[in-house]
Design goal:
Layout (H helix, E strand, L loop, with lengths): L2 E7 L9 H8 L7 E8 L3 E15 L2 E7 L13 E9 L2 E9 L23 H6 L7 E2 L7 E6 L5 E13 L8 E12 L10 E8 L3 E9 L7 E9 L20 E8 L3 E15 L2 E10 L2 E12 L2 E13 L22 H6 L15 E4 L3 H7 L1 E15 L2 E14 L7 E8 L3 E9 L4 E6 L2
Antiparallel strand pairs: 1-18, 2-3, 2-13, 3-4, 4-5, 5-6, 6-7, 8-9, 9-10, 10-11, 11-12, 12-13, 14-15, 14-24, 15-16, 16-17, 17-18, 19-20, 20-21, 21-22, 22-23, 23-24
């Protein structure tokens, strides 16, 4: 009985579309970009205060915004405020790297254990945006069901748990009509500050693609008469853009389970049935545990995936299997036979080739290539092209789905079984539901979701 042990790791690879191009959409930062916000606090700043925000620097993934109340025709007695807030775009979202400002008004609660050298404040629009959640401020890509945890404050003593609630229309003075926004709600907790419980509460931010945050509402903890901070966008020279799809085509949530049946028309006529379960989740990454339920391949495997602005990527895998089915050899020729790939599971067929499985913004017509370089090529030796075909209706034992079809042409030099055309279908909230790999040797591997 042939036995195989396959260990592999894949580095995250970007598409032709750089991650920053998507990140830039939720908070644009081109030179000359400006925004004017109006904010109030029902207890500590009831008179509306206007702030102008501008981009002061932008280099690579890092940029800085500056705000000021100067020259905004604010009524006498409203807080005078100037400051900066710095950000960095990462593959997993927008992070805050620094902030500076003048001291908050004396009447505001002190958001530190002591008054001396307190670097915390909520006396501006952007302080309310980054409060309690600096790394990240906004996790990306935004997909349905996304939740994340973060910290903030000078001493990282403010915790937040954020949930993306979906796309919704919002009305703000900057636009003469409702605009589509990503709604994010955060539960924020601060303990030990002199101003408790002002630093805790529920904050909701509406993010508009191509513009940035357009509305912030922070319901502070403290009972029926607790303060409420509200900021809205009055005007901007940025334009609303169509946001990326928020469909979750490859869920990585804990407990996600899928059972597949797969066959090959020539080498595996008796079906193999396997179950995959997400058994660990952390920081945008998930681990699937796989086990065989029936068929001629007995397998125990672990697969790691990451989700980011470079797409859904297979990060690593560990597979141990025993099989009575005999498949043709796979390459690449550059590796010794003991280290070459094997197809033992549905995920082996899905991961094979080059990353990513899916781009972060899988619009129809999007293409990416597998080049003859990099870590994925060293492991698989596969070149080719993948293309998003769009939504298609597929029927499998688990049901009927409108699924995103991805067509990949794969070439592994000298190995017909490792070459061919693979089409994978991914359904929102379910992940892979069907896969057909037409190998260059004439055989066909077929994967279907059973439940």
């Amino acid at each position: 009985m042939p036995r195989g042990l396959a260990l592999l790791g894949l580095a995250v690879a970007s598409l032709g579309l750089a991650p920053s191009a998507l990140a830039d959409g939720w908070l644009p930062h081109a030179r000359g970009a400006t925004w004017v916000y109006r904010w109030t606090d029902s207890a500590y700043n009831p008179t509306p205060t206007k702030e102008k925000v501008t981009v002061t620097s932008s280099k690579g993934a890092d940029f800085t915004l500056a705000w000021t109340t100067d020259g905004q025709d604010n009524p006498a007695g409203t807080p005078a405020s100037t400051g900066t807030v710095s950000f960095r775009e990462t593959d997993t979202g927008l992070t805050n790297t620094d902030w500076t400002s003048n001291a908050p008004p004396p009447a505001f609660p002190v958001l530190c254990p002591t008054v001396a050298q307190c670097g915390n404040s909520l006396a501006s629009t952007y302080y309310n945006v980054i409060w309690g959640g600096r790394v990240p401020v906004l996790e990306e890509p935004l997909v349905r069901g996304l939740t994340w945890s973060s910290t903030g404050g000078t001493q990282n003593d403010v915790d937040s748990s954020s949930t993306y609630l979906g796309m919704t229309e919002v009305s703000v003075p900057a636009f003469g009509h409702p605009v589509l926004a990503a709604k994010v709600r955060s539960q924020i907790t601060q303990a030990g500050a002199l101003g408790d419980p002002y630093g805790s509460g529920v904050r909701t931010i509406w993010w508009v693609y191509g513009v940035g945050p357009v509305k912030v509402v922070f319901d502070h903890t403290g009972g029926a008469n607790a303060p409420v901070t509200t900021a809205v966008l009055l005007r901007t020279n940025q334009s609303v853009q169509a946001p990326p799809s928020d469909a979750n085509y490859f869920p990585l949530g804990s407990g996600t389970t899928a059972t597949y049946r797969w066959t090959n028309s020539r080498y595996l006529k008796k079906p193999v049935v396997e179950q995959f379960t997400v058994d660990a989740v952390a920081n945008g990454a998930a681990r699937f545990a796989a086990k065989s339920l029936s068929g001629p391949i007995k397998v125990a495997a672990l697969y790691g995936f990451t989700a980011g602005l470079s797409g859904i990527t297979s990060a690593w895998a560990s597979t141990k299997a025993a099989s009575t089915a005999v498949f043709p050899k796979l390459g690449p020729a550059s590796l010794p036979r003991a280290k070459r790939r094997h197809f033992f599971t549905a995920f082996d067929l899905m991961n094979y080739g080059f990353p990513p499985l899916l781009p972060a913004d899988p619009r129809p017509g999007t293409t990416w290539k597998g080049h003859a370089s990099g870590r994925a090529y060293a492991l698989f030796g596969v070149t080719g092209t993948s293309r998003i075909l769009g939504l298609q209706t597929v029927h499998v034992p688990a049901g009927t789905f409108r699924a995103l079809a991805v067509r990949s042409t794969l070439r592994q030099a000298g190995f017909p079984f490792g070459s061919g055309t693979r089409t994978s279908w991914f359904a929102p909230g379910r992940g892979l539901v069907k896969l057909v790999f037409r190998h260059a040797d004439g055989s066909v591997s077929d994967v279907e979701l059973l439940k």
